[in-house]
């Protein structure tokens, strides 16, 4: 039996960061991982997808500038882009990540971990040996999420891509069908189209990026179409056929727009239609929880409904915010809370925005969807704010009318919105869409988290001529009244 203060199941970014935090507090920790240390983000999501996207985005931005576009007559070198992707995914070798975990003083345990009652974890190692690990204070589930595939006739036999194949494919397919309208679908549709695939995007709803302000999805759809993606809304896949595993795949569709039953043929099909928690085989039944469920937590990230308060869940697995950076944020909060509880007598700071309170998961989630254009958002949309009972005002401005944006790209198209709580006169949300807007997001996050009064923001002077001048334009629109504002 091995005894530790804390046992972490999962060595993705949340697990790694939590281990580092509790080690810094003087606690011993074991990190258990059955796949690659570094998790989904490092090998099948954030890093490889952004590595695929950056070359086409850079090329597209250059081609939007007179004098620069004339220098480019060829196309992307797909092999070079895929090679660069491989380097950012460390060629799917986690030795560096394992070394980093060990450098914090944590023990890395390779194998499949299963909870075996309170504070106990049994690890089945690759050699078939079982190790029993026991925690003095906490077991933390950081096992993440996996792609959720719909129950469609013929889908398993069609060998569909998920985000893993979509970020790790070795060759560019001639034709790719992408099913879904969220960030994964949008980014991979753009990336593979830029690499030379003929891409058809099939969206069941009537817009992309439904969790953002509606105008964000509209601009992104326009950008995808300009890049050559065939974007179709209001279509549902009813069946998938692939008689030959090496042959083409056919998607049968129900066109809600009145076209009736149609079919789309492709060489590969990527489904980006949701996520499921990776909790089906980690022993939840031994502590009264249901395998395969998301794990509900309180704001210190402790799992509710488990006696003794020893079980925590951090990252995708708790379904609060399925984003790498939010999982790392949760790890910092949970690590601090575990350390405080482990040191007898230490009080927890659970006030709003307190050191042991994951407030940002409710009020200030940040997200960027990459492509041309980018879409970036923090906090609440107008609809979300009104659902919470807030009286808000949406202040919009055309990003193309900002000097820095017009210098950034000829015929710059974009839009910005800040959502202001009328009663407190503070930002509760912001959305930007346009080329290069991801770098605007952190300033908005600081304003939302800091609850900076709008009148104080007048004193945060944006440098000229930068795209950040949008803040001045938004404040002027706020000052000048509601004419032209959109809800």
Describe the structure.
- The protein has 487 residues and is of the alpha/beta class.
- It folds into 3 domains: 175 residues, FAD/NAD(P)-binding domain, CATH 3.50.50; 118 residues, 3-Layer(bba) Sandwich (FAD/NAD(P)-binding domain), CATH 3.50.50; 107 residues, Enolase-like, domain 1 (2-Layer Sandwich), CATH 3.30.390.
- The chain has 15 helices and 21 strands.
- The strands form 5 sheets. Strands 1, 2, 3, 4, 5, 6 and 16 form a 7-stranded mixed β-sheet that branches.
- A hairpin with a 5-residue loop joins strand 5 and strand 6.
- Helix 1 runs parallel beside helix 9.
- The protein is globular.
What is the C-alpha radius of gyration, as a whole number of Å?
A: 24 Å
Number of self-contained structural domains: 3
Beta content comes to: 15-25%
Name the average pLDDT. Answer: 95
The first-level CATH class of the largest domain is given as: Alpha Beta
For CATH, the homologous superfamily of the largest domain is named as FAD/NAD(P)-binding domain
Query: What oligomeric state is this?
Result: single chain
SS class: alpha/beta
Number of strands: 21
Shape estimate: globular
CATH fold descriptor of the largest domain: FAD/NAD(P)-binding domain
Distance between the termini: 60 Å
Count of helical regions: 15
Question: Residue share in helices?
Answer: 25-40%
Q: How can the largest sheet be summarized?
A: 7 strands, mixed
CATH architecture of the largest domain: 3-Layer(bba) Sandwich
| Residue windows where pLDDT falls under 50 for at least 5 positions | 483-487
């Amino acid at each position: 039996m091995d005894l530790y203060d804390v046992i972490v199941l999962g060595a993705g970014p949340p697990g790694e960061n939590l281990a580092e935090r509790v080690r810094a507090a003087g606690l011993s920790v074991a990190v258990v991982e059955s796949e690659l240390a570094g998790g989904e983000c490092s090998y099948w999501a954030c890093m490889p997808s952004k590595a695929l996207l950056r070359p086409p985005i850079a090329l597209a931005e250059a081609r939007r500038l007179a004098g620069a576009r004339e220098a480019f007559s060829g196309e992307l070198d797909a092999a070079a882009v895929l090679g660069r992707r491989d380097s950012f995914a460390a060629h799917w070798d986690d030795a560096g990540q394992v070394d980093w975990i060990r450098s914090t003083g944590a023990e890395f345990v390779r194998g499949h971990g299963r909870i075996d009652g309170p504070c106990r974890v049994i690890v089945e190692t690759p050699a078939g040996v079982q190790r029993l690990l026991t925690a003095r204070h906490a077991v933390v589930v950081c096992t993440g999420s996996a792609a959720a595939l719909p129950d469609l006739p013929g889908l398993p036999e069609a060998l569909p891509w998920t985000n893993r194949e979509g970020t790790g494919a070795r060759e560019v397919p001639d034709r790719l069908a992408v099913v879904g309208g969220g960030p994964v679908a949008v980014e991979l549709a753009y990336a593979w189209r830029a690499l030379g695939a003929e891409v058809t995007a099939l969206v069941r709803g009537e817009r992309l990026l439904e969790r953002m302000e509606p105008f964000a999805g509209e601009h992104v759809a326009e950008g995808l179409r300009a890049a050559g993606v065939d974007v179709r809304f209001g279509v549902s896949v009813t069946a998938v056929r692939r008689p030959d595993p090496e042959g083409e795949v056919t998607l049968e569709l129900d066109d809600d727009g009145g076209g009736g039953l149609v079919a789309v043929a492709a060489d590969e099909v990527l489904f980006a239609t949701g996520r499921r928690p990776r909790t089906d085989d980690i022993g939840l039944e031994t502590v009264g929880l249901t395998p395969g469920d998301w794990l509900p937590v309180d704001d210190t990230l402790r799992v509710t409904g488990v006696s003794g308060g020893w079980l925590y869940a951090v990252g995708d697995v708790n379904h609060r915010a399925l984003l790498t950076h939010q999982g790392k944020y949760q790890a910092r909060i949970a690590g601090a809370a575990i350390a405080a509880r482990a040191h007898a007598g230490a009080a927890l700071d659970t006030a709003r925005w307190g050191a042991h309170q994951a407030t940002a998961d409710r009020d200030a989630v940040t997200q960027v969807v990459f492509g041309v254009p980018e879409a970036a958002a923090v906090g609440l949309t107008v609809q979300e704010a009104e659902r919470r009972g807030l009286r808000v005002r949406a202040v919009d401005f055309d990003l193309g009318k900002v000097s820095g944006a017009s210098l950034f790209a000829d015929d710059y198209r974009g839009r910005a919105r800040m959502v202001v709580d009328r009663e407190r006169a503070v930002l509760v949300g912001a959305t930007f869409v346009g080329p290069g807007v991801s770098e605007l997001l952190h300033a908005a996050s600081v304003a939302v988290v800091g609850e900076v009064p709008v009148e104080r923001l007048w004193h945060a002077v944006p440098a000229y001529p930068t795209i950040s001048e949008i803040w001045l334009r938004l404040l002027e629109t706020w000052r000048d009244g509601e004419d032209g504002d959109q809800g």
